[in-house]
Design goal:
Helices cover about 40% and strands about 25% of the residues. By secondary structure, the protein is an alpha+beta fold.
């Protein structure tokens, strides 16, 4: 896709959202189906089911997806798509590139070994490796714009209100 095609695809959407802001509110949904025989669940994805289970640090054998890894995968996917859209709009050619996310969590918290230990990721490092002929200032602006508009990154930075129902 080039900048002209991207603008042509997004322009009517932007206009509609300016005129009727309520139409810009998009619903997102995910569902996990519990496995009745294992400490696992199935999560429907775009290309089939992903089976999630215990990480080896909490008793799993490593054969099932780890939810923390899935969160980081969502982050790099969103940042990667956002970066490509921003680069396209800016007219920057990316020959190749990668978006990487690394995080840490403390298994003591997850397993209830130490109540003072946190449950969940405590840090995430996001990095971009981009091969392009754009100058450093343009690449920095491109990454800053990606940071501003990446849905998952902004969701992690300003967590939404979460309600639980039983």
């Amino acid at each position: 896709m080039n900048a002209e095609r991207l603008r042509a695809a997004q322009s009517p959407l932007k206009q509609r959202y300016r005129e009727a802001p309520d139409t810009a509110r998009v619903a997102a949904r995910a569902e996990a189906v519990l496995d009745p025989t294992d400490v696992a669940c199935g999560v429907a994805g775009w290309h089939g089911e992903v089976r999630a289970g215990l990480h080896p640090a909490t008793g799993g054998d490593g054969s099932l997806a780890c939810s923390a890894d899935m969160l980081l995968q969502a982050l790099v996917a969103c940042a990667g798509v956002t970066l490509r859209a921003v680069a396209t709009a800016m007219g920057v050619t990316i020959r190749s590139g990668r978006v990487l996310a690394e995080g840490h969590w403390d298994a003591r918290g997850t397993l209830g070994v130490d109540r003072a230990a946190p449950v969940g990721l405590t840090d995430i490092a996001l990095s971009f490796e981009i091969d392009s002929d754009a100058d450093a200032a343009k690449l920095e602006r491109m990454i800053a714009t990606t940071e501003r508009y990446c849905v998952i990154l902004q969701t992690l930075r300003a967590p939404p209100e979460i309600s639980l129902s039983r």
